[in-house]
Amino acid sequence: MSQLSVKHLLGIKDLTLKDIELILETATQFKEVINRPIKKVPSLRDVTIANVFFENSTRTRLSFELAQKRLSADTINFSAAASSVKKGETLLDTVNNILAMKVDMIVMRHASVGAPHFLSKHIKANIINAGDGTHEHPTQALLDSFSIKEKLGSVAGKKVCIFGDILHSRVALSNIFALKKQGAEVMVCGPATLIPKFIADLGVKVEFDLRKALLWCDVANVLRIQLERQTIKYFPTLREYAQYYGINKQLLDSLNKEIVIMHPGPINRGVELSSDVADSGHSIILDQVENGVAVRMAVMYLLAGNK
User: Fold this and answer.
1) Which positions ≥6 away from 279 have C-beta within 8 Å?
2) Where in the chain is the domain with CATH 3.40.50.1370?
3) What is the pLDDT of residue 95?
4) Which of 200, 156, 196, 208 is nearest to 178 (CA)?
5) E strand or H helix at 42, and its extent?
6) How far apart are CA 194 and CA 210, in angstroms?
7) What pLDDT, on a 0 to 100 scale, did the predictor assign at position 215?
8) Which residues sit opposite 273 in a β-bridge?
9) Alpha helices, DSSP H only, in the chain?
10) Structural contact between residues 174 and 215, judged by C-beta atoms closer than 8 angstroms
């Protein structure tokens, strides 16, 4: 069996193109598994995985938990809100206490940039980054690539535009790395206040006009405005944002071209996407959710084999 070149999945930045291709290939096999009447395989029967979430999450957490069950792994779930972290315990002490229970792999989400990277230097278990601050969210980018490939046949040569709050989004950064490595053209589009200053240094185009960006792209990956990460106001009102950067059916119909609509969720309906777009034939949002389970199964399976 081919192996990943890394022991942990900390970010897309650390992966080679071969790694990405291997994960997507393996995910294709697992997608077939989760669509069978019996959706379980014994691949990780002797592996114990801890889901350590220091930040709230619904989709990512459920997706990882389901992927672990499908692989027959033993899982434990840790939520910081109800833990000794509230009593002042350090991150390393918390994780070492979990590892003392003979845990093989940790899936971790943390509000601080670099938290999984810090842990990887101090512990032996495999670590999967399920989102660190505004930095990276590697499994989301992998499932997005998988979904584009499934819909359009390949990622290479496709024009993908990421819309919205690029400044606070870990999904945007991971997607830029993943898409560029696979040979896609990437553009970002949003208000100037939400586009990082040096984003063009990553080899992406920058566009502030929604219509021009939509006319350019094959795939629109639309992000929500992350109000919970914003300490100052970046635009006057959500209503005004929706007016200039919201994608609705009328706008899409006026373009006279097919565009694939993606969104990592949760959607703020009526802000970045209208309901008639989110629920339309253009949208592959629910496919992304299904593919997330297969991709996360692939990542955990491949890392477990990389002991």
Assistant:
1) none
2) 12-137+289-304, 138-286
3) 86
4) 156
5) none
6) 14
7) 98
8) 247, 269
9) 17-34, 59-70, 91-99, 115-120, 138-152, 170-181, 210-216, 238-245, 249-253, 275-278, 285-304
10) no
Residue located via tokens 């299904």: 290
Give the predicted TM-score (pTM) of the model: 0.94
Q: What is the CATH number of domain 138-286?
A: 3.40.50.1370
Residues 175/202, Cβ–Cβ less than 8 Å: no
Class of domain 12-137+289-304: alpha beta
- Contact between 49 and 68 under an 8 Å Cβ cutoff? The reply is yes
pLDDT of residue 307: 62
pLDDT at 40: 95
What are phi and psi for residue 127, nearest 5 degrees? Answer: -120, 135
Mean pLDDT in runs of 10 for the chain (307 residues)? 91 98 98 96 96 89 97 90 67 86 94 93 94 95 98 98 94 97 98 93 97 98 75 75 94 95 94 96 96 98 88
Q: What is the rounded distance in angstroms from the CA atom of residue 106 to the CA atom of residue 114? A: 15
* Token pair listed for 48: 């114990």
pLDDT value of residue 232: 59
Angle between helices 138-152 and 17-34 (to 10 degrees): 70
Would you state the pLDDT for residue 254? 96
Separation between Cα atoms, residue 27 and residue 35, nearest integer Å: 12
The conformation of residue 283, written as its DSSP 8-state character, comes to B
